[in-house]
Design brief:
By secondary structure, the protein is of the alpha/beta class. The protein has 3 domains: 157 residues, Glutaredoxin (3-Layer(aba) Sandwich); 93 residues, no CATH class; 62 residues, no CATH class. Helix 1 links the parallel strand 3 and strand 4. Helix 5 packs antiparallel against helix 6, helix 6 packs antiparallel against helix 7 and helix 10 packs antiparallel against helix 11. The longest helix is centred in the middle third of the chain and has 27 residues. It starts with 13 loop residues before the first strand and ends with a helix.
């Protein structure tokens, strides 16, 4: 049965490739309440995404060991963001209920991926327990079977956490905030949220702590570190957006728009808006936005497709979209996907 339509790669045990990772899309519902994770906010980090299901009895026997193994491998490394997305239906509460006891859920960003739409974009198809590494520069670099382990390893080392993967993806990564001092226990959850790219959430969690006299100065330093990280992101994306030779500068426009939305009427939000304001009436931006809306419409349809015929119709629409919008960011993403599909066929 043909159960995929965005074939970035042909999955075996491990597939190594390089392609721009698509943004987290509308098919994903997150366990975060007021702030959704953003892939652009995580630029500079190594991101490990695991797609999981709860319907498979055999998988359920070993999935807890796998999740605990991956958590143990990276739990103390702030340069790594762990993401778990349930692809076989159900709510975020269902996903959390399944994972409770199988992992430290605070260390992971958790959500559901409707109809495995994002899984197909990122790994090429919808199948049991897959993973993908996204590099610090936002590339999909490797995908494979999440349950595969290094042969002969004892204790078991899962393939996604092998030494070679850590050298390739984790060593070049960095933390998002520059805060080398030790942090008091009450502030550590906010630091974790900041390192997951949830800066606004981190600042909200710090607010009640600032009323405690013994924490006031430390809270102020952490706030300054978070503000500096966000400002550095604004400066970087503003520079990339101003570069007319940068074919992917629409990603930077989206990143700045996202920051402005997260921080409301604050000076941070205004700085982000200043980075995009000079492009507001640019013809290239209008073209990119038109393509983006059309792409999101296709993804919404994809999230509802539940049979081969529907998937094939979306595949054809995606091919036509790539041809029509080949001069845009999302057009190029679609073209790479359908080119890979034709190669496999």
């Amino acid at each position: 049965m043909k159960t995929w339509f965005l074939a970035f790669c042909v999955l075996s045990l491990q597939t190594v490739f390089a392609s721009q990772a698509p943004p987290f899309g509308s098919s994903i519902t997150w366990n975060t309440s007021r702030e959704d994770p953003s892939l652009e906010a995580l630029r500079g980090k190594a991101v490990l995404v695991v797609f999981f299901q709860s319907w498979c009895p055999l998988c359920n026997n070993w999935s807890g060991t796998m999740f605990k193994g991956l958590t143990e491998a990276f739990k103390d490394n702030p340069k790594v963001v762990l993401v778990a997305l349930k692809t076989d239906g159900g709510s975020v509460r269902d996903a959390l209920g399944y994972l409770k006891g199988r992992m430290d859920t605070d260390r992971w960003l958790i959500g559901t991926d409707s109809n495995a739409t994002y899984a197909r974009q990122l790994t090429g198809r919808d199948r049991l327990y897959t993973y993908a590494w996204i590099t610090p520069d936002g590339q999909i670099s490797e995908s494979g079977k999440a349950g595969s382990a290094v042969s002969g390893s004892n204790p078991k080392v899962y393939w996604a956490a092998r030494n070679d993967a850590q050298k390739r993806y984790v060593q070049p990564a960095r933390t998002l905030i520059d805060f080398s001092a030790s942090v008091s226990a009450p502030l550590q959850p906010a630091i974790l949220r900041a390192e997951q790219g949830l800066f606004a959430t981190a600042l909200r969690e710090l607010q009640p702590l600032s009323t405690r006299a013994e924490l006031r100065e430390e809270v102020a330093r952490v706030r300054e570190a978070i503000a500096a990280a966000v400002q550095a992101s604004i400066d970087r994306h503003s520079g990339l957006l101003a570069d007319a030779t940068n074919r992917d500068r629409y990603f930077s426009f989206l990143a700045l728009t996202d920051i402005a939305g997260r921080f409301g009427g604050s000076p941070i939000a205004q700085a982000a808006r200043n980075g995009t304001s000079t492009h507001a009436s640019a013809s290239w931006l209008s073209r990119e936005q038109t393509a983006h809306r059309a792409y999101e419409s296709l993804m919404r349809k994809a999230s509802r497709a539940n049979d081969d015929r529907a998937i094939e119709r979306i595949t054809k629409s995606l091919q036509e979209f790539g041809q029509t919008y080949q001069d845009t960011l999302f057009g190029r993403l679609a073209s790479k996907a359908t080119d890979a599909e034709e190669t496999e066929s």
